[in-house]
Amino acid sequence: MTRKRRRLVFVLAGMVLLAGAAAIVLSALSDNLVFFYSPTDLVTKHVPDGRRLRIGGLVADHSLHKAADEKTVTFDVTDERNQVAVTYTGALPDLFREGQGVVVEGVREPNGTVMASTVLAKHDERYMPPEVVDALKRAGRWQENAATAAKSP
Amino acid sequence: MIIELGHFALMLALPLALIQAAVPLWGAHRRHAGMMALADLTALAQFALIALAFATLMNAYVTSDFSVLNVAENSSSAKPLLYKITGLWGNHEGSMLLWVLILTLFGAAVAWFGDNLPPALKARVLSVQAMIGAGFFLFILFTSDPFQRLANPPLDGNGLNPILQDPGLAFHPPMLYLGYVGFSVAFSFAVAALLEGRVDAAWARWVRPWTLAAWCALTVGIAMGSWWAYYTLGWGGWWFWDPVENASFMPWLVGTALLHSAIVVEKRDALKTWTVLLAILAFSLSLVGTFLVRSGVLTSVHAFALDPRRGVFILVLLAVAIGGSLILYAVRAPALQGGGLFAPVSREGALVLNNLLLATGAATVFLGTLYPLFLDAVGGPKLSVGYPFFDRTFVPLMVPLLLAVSVGPFLAWKRGDLRGALQRLWIAFGLAVLVGAIALYVTQGGPILAVGGLMLAAWVGLGAITEWIERTKLNWRRAIHLPRAAHGMTLAHLGLAVTVTGIAGSAWQTERIVVMKPGDNLSIGGYTLHLDRIGQSDTPSYHAERADISVSADGKAVAAMHPEKRTYPLEQMTRGETAIRTTLLADLYLALGDNDGKGGATIRAYWKPLVPWIWIGAVFMALGGVLSLSDRRFRIGVARRRAPAGAAVEPGE
């Protein structure tokens, strides 16, 4: 093979590979984009059922209930204007508490509750997930003292 | 007073770095020996100054000097000494000081061990190192000063985030930084080569050991982080495609590609521009990794820095370093002379395939990690990319890579014989199929993808062993005389096989989550767990709720396990302490959940077959790298004898 032919083979192989990778990436991306909503968004915007989504807010006080088997829990996530009920089966993070920030990933059921597959709690007292801050700000419930607390490094 | 000395040393390092960035570069251009030699002196002095600064801060931590803000915020007098020490890099400011300590250490090492380098190349490398250093000194001095004093020192500090009070995480950041910053040397060499307009086999021989060292440290660092997540987060996940994990994984992927392409430059004088690009990208991704973790733009365990000013500063630093080096690359790379010819089916061809797949893999991870940030930055919707994205893009790309790993070493340089290579591998192929059949039979309809994973792992491992047997002919004398790099490759590829085995095996895990009262039994994975009691225990740092569980198999007691739930009053945090019993073939993993208030508690029990292999494999890979690093041709004296010959190309094997 001449130098040019060889180079052509490499370029073609590289392009085939890249095209394949791009195809995989695009198809996987379209299935796995998880949009973020605040509880108010879920009430006011049209959100299709059955799509994975993330919601962020505070765990509403006195809303945490455990089912008899101790594995399934239900709680409400609130931005202090609207709230949404969440059902989750599995182990809650150690830092999960009522009144604290949480990000829930799951699917919305036709009855309006969110069936969670992942629950992320904040990892220490000073840290608030940015999505939660955002949701609270949009609901006009963001307090400045909380803001400085969340921003201190 | 001592801490001010450290602050002063850091300030003094900045002008020194600026001098080192400018004078040797000018000297290299003018061929002025004195100006070039200045770099050695300043590089060593920089390291001495930063080491002094680091030592004073360490002293403040060890003696619990709470008049220093950084110590007061991140330590307390009741902590064990280990966590007082590691508290230094458990926070943003201290960890940046560690970053520059390692950077100047590498700079000093190039100055000290680089006698055999051509003076102009060495001067340029050290000048680029100093530019990076100057950027980071400025960053620390202006946005993240760890030496700030408090006017009214508190009696005790705020303590250290409990999730960081752990031996696994204590040494995770230093290893990771050794890797990140180690790539800075490859980067400096690449930029210096672009400035000189020359890349040859000798250049590759100098770059490769630094890259190898960085790669080994990064491998260990990533494995430590994954292991820590596994035993600490309470449900035994070991990889989450979390942005911060991805941030360390991307430089690892590109660094792995760089290791392999540098071989081609060294042996065959080909793939030069590509290798230079990889060196630039590996360090650029390390910088992006630092940016991702340190700017606080991510929702992540690691986001303990939430200061936008720092983010902007790092963004500018990134733009200058990455943008500048890529522009230089675009201008100068075409001038680099293309090297040896090779056929698509050849050792070089196989290494090109390796590079293409690793680089594409890194690109998909990059896309999945940064796409949400990008959309957010341009005012698009807030979203995240779910972890299935990574499974569906990255894994398919790694399958051909694993298939090719076994074949590549059997191909000759320049022009290989694919059919011959496959013929020599038929035993490995047969055994891999057998492994798959046995796995199917034993697990009775387990996940089919995991069976495929096991077969791939067997193929990679057996391929590496076959190649080693062919090389050594099982003759020890022959094996000893082989270059150590050859054994290193075998060990690293075996490590890859072991890790893939662990990943595949984890698919067969079983879990039970139940509320148990003292006296209750639970069976999982062939074990019977008996909850003896739920008690309390206290240490100065935390209060623990603790379950005493006796484990038996076939009626015989095998272990007593004690998962705990720890509450840290000072930091007001709770974290679980899992109990793991490993047989190296499988882990029994217990975590203590919430108390139900009626004398019982939630116990999460998992049986995880083959999971320990994930980290054992990583250790093998790193050891393989160390073994290669000890190869004769990287040793100083040997290289020095060869250096006058300049671009002497080693004959292909």
List the helices and strands of chain A in order.
HEHEEEEEEHH
Number of helices of chain B: 21
What would the CATH topology of the largest domain in chain A be?
OB fold (Dihydrolipoamide Acetyltransferase, E2P)
- Identify the CATH class of the largest domain in chain A: Mainly Beta
> What is the domain tally of chain B?
4
Helicity of chain B, in percent? 55-70%
User: Which ranges of chain A are low-confidence, i.e. pLDDT below 50, for 5 or more consecutive residues?
Assistant: 144-153
Which structural class do the helices and strands of chain A define?
alpha+beta
- Characterize the largest beta sheet of chain A: strand count, sense, and whether it forms a barrel: 5 strands, mixed, barrel
The CATH architecture classification of the largest domain in chain A is Beta Barrel
Overall radius of gyration of chain B: 26 Å
CATH superfamily of the largest domain in chain A, called what? Nucleic acid-binding proteins
Number of strands of chain B: 11
Question: What would your notes on this structure say?
Answer:
The complex is a heterodimer of chains A (153) and B (653). Chain A has 153 residues and is α+β, with helices and mostly antiparallel strands. Chain A folds into 2 domains: 1-33; 34-151, OB fold (Dihydrolipoamide Acetyltransferase, E2P) (Beta Barrel), CATH 2.40.50. Chain A contains 4 helices and 7 strands, in the order H-E-H-E-E-E-E-E-E-H-H. Chain A has helices at residues 3-32, 39-44, 130-138, 144-151; strands spanning 33-37, 52-59, 65-66, 72-78, 83-89, 101-108, 114-121. In chain A, helix 2 (39-44) links the parallel strand 1 and strand 2 (52-59). Chain A starts with a helix and ends with a helix. Residues 144-153 of chain A have low confidence and may be disordered. By secondary structure, chain B is of the alpha+beta class. Chain B has 4 domains: 1-165, no CATH class; 205-408; 425-509 and 613-653, no CATH class; 510-610. Chain B has helices at residues 2-30, 33-62, 69-74, 81-86, 92-113, 119-143, 167-170, 172-196, 201-232, 243-268, 272-294, 308-332, 347-377, 387-407, 418-424, 426-443, 448-472, 476-481, 484-505, 612-629, 636-642; strands at 383-385, 510-516, 521-524, 527-538, 543-553, 556-561, 564-568, 573-577, 579-582, 586-595, 601-609. In chain B, strands 3, 4, 5, 6, 7 and 8 form a 6-stranded antiparallel β-sheet that branches. A 4-stranded antiparallel β-sheet of chain B has the order 2-11-10-9, with no helix packed on it. In chain B, a hairpin with a 2-residue loop joins strand 3 and strand 4. The longest helix of chain B has 32 residues, at 201-232. Chain B is globular, with a radius of gyration of 26 Å. The chains are: A alpha+beta (153), B alpha+beta (653). Chains A and B meet through helix 1, strand 1 and helix 3 of A and helix 13, strand 1, helix 14, strand 2 and strand 8 of B.
